Amino acid sequence: MSSGKVAHDYVVVGAGSAGCAMAHRLTEAGADVLLLEAGQPDEKEEIHVPAMFPHLMKSEVDWDYSTTPQPEMNGRELYWPRGKTLGGSSSINAMIYIRGVPHDYDTWAERGNEGWGYDEMLPYFKKAEHFEPGESEYHGQGGPLNVASAADPHPVSEAMVDAAAEYGIPRNDDFNGAEQEGTGLYHVTQEDGQRCSAAKAYITPILDRDNLTVETGAQVTEIRFDGDQAVGVSYEQDGDRHEADADAEVIVSAGAVNSPQLLMLSGIGPAEHLRDHGVDVVADRPGVGQNLQDHLFGFVVYERTKGGEPAPTTNIGEAGGFTYADESAPAPDLQFHFAPVYYMEHGFANPEEGQGFSIGATQLRPESRGYVELASDDPHDDPIIDPQYFSEQTDLDVIVEGVKQAREIAQQDALEEWRGEEVWPGEDVQTDEEIEEHVRETAHTVYHPVGTCKMGDGEMAVVDDELRVHGVSDLRVVDASVMPTISSGNTNAPTIAIAEKAAELITEERAVTADD
């Protein structure tokens, strides 16, 4: 057993979307960084070929989580894939680049999180980005993350966009521009037809930096404290135990499931819950693991009467749109993902023969709140994940409305030559009650868990508006778990922007300290 201890300025836990960006920017500023990733290097071929991402589910690069039985979803335990490799979930996701809407970030700021409004966040989105279609008021060039137009979209995806326009959703060539509302092809995190994960963007090009150390297969088991000061971490690698010291800070970027789990294992969380599991309390923070939010898909699926397989560059969710279920909402509250294939239960329930196309409806700002808790004090045990889906009736109502609109889109003339029999929900499902039952039985995650270490200054907040953990020192959380409320769309781009802002905060603070 090894107990060697090595000191770095920063220890970053988790090489996902946020951790990769943090390691890149901190080392760029001259800091010495240790980046620890529980998974293995991103060498699996299926990671890099966009069309292969469904094959990564339940593989060795997936944490392969499941929720507790969900009472409002007929007692189902829902499968939750989360990336376990360099790049984290950005190495297994559908590569859709969506920022959300100004309302999302302005809401964060209105809740007391200074510096997190949309106008203040836009520069970080642009800084991260190399937008192939060109620089503009809303887009940057020269950043690490390559954002491209779909290389070779399937013609049925184009037909679904045409159908949505016929239905009345205006065309929109850029959901991240002046307006989110509309229908069109998604921009994707790809470069030269391959996935551009956070690892590919931020880490692969800088592996030769002397001030960056990347360790894979390294599962952090505990944040170590001296009193209430974080001083390093313990981790396991190849059967050995190691300790790493952080002379400046420990930065937890392990995601909305693993970040709260690690905080609780390390003594930061609801005191009674920690004591129940034999964990010594360092800081009683009742909000750790609470405030869990996620997006759900409700699907309409049809047989496809013509056309072959999508191109290898497909991200499956090639196109989509943003519109309203509630016209009084402050921004679009409904998102569609258009797929030129069957996409039923993550693809696991697809018919064995024939072709299909799918329209997934998602409520963008769900009101239900769940939690992540410890199952035990063993860091190798999966935590308890209870999203409490549909605990608020409005969440179900919006997705039912989305399914009804998806059906309307599918019946437009633009899809006439493509549309075969309706597979889901099926022609016998017509009333709102029947559609509701279809949603309860078949809806699944859109893979966007956030919120479990939320930013703010109230009792249930976990980090402040500089992402420092309340109640201790030299510890930050930087990932999707800090979102007070979920962003209106796919969450990868916002997570990277959060990390870009956090890295700048830390770098500026470090410069001030050096001057002193």
Automatic annotation (TrEMBL):
InterPro entries: FAD/NAD-bd_sf, GMC_OxRdtase, GMC_OxRdtase_N, GMC_OxRtase_C
PROSITE patterns: GMC_OXRED_1 (PS00623), GMC_OXRED_2 (PS00624), PROKAR_LIPOPROTEIN (PS51257)
Keyword hit for Flavoprotein: yes
Domain (Glucose-methanol-choline oxidoreductase N-terminal): residue spans on this chain: 83-106, 255-269
Superkingdom to which the source organism belongs: Archaea
Cofactor field: FAD
Pfam families found in the cross-reference section: GMC_oxred_C, GMC_oxred_N
Single Gene Ontology MF annotation: flavin adenine dinucleotide binding
Keywords noted in UniProt: FAD, Flavoprotein
Family note: Belongs to the GMC oxidoreductase family.
Name listed for the protein in its UniProt record: NAD(P)-binding protein
Protein's organism: Halovenus carboxidivorans
Lineage of producing organism: Archaea, Methanobacteriati, Methanobacteriota, Stenosarchaea group, Halobacteria
